[in-house]
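From the pipeline queue, job 12 of 40. The input is one protein chain; the requested action is below.

Action: predict structure.
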Amino acid sequence: MKTKIAVALTLLIVAVLVVAAQQSDVLIKIRTRERAAIAVPDFRASGEAQKFMQTFNQTLFGDLDEAGLLRMVPKTMYPLETPQRPQDFRPPLMPNASPRRGAPPPQPVR
């Protein structure tokens, strides 16, 4: 009898701890007076979903802009090609000339 009570009590404690460990809310604390800047690229889709992407992108940008928590970066500042698949990412090309002693290292050519 005591073992049944101990097992039931242990299971009850584990269940309470599991439920208490779940966090349903996301809390973002911005400590500066200036709003954080965010750039949200236009997402692409394939197949039937492609016809909804313009509406999705406009809604996402508008909702984030109107929330008042973030400052949206203008889309004119985005790169011309936004990588969205692993094949889109390319490593930067290294310059040919080797740096001189004491000179700052060369920046990669993109």
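Job complete. The beta strands are 36-38, 70-72.
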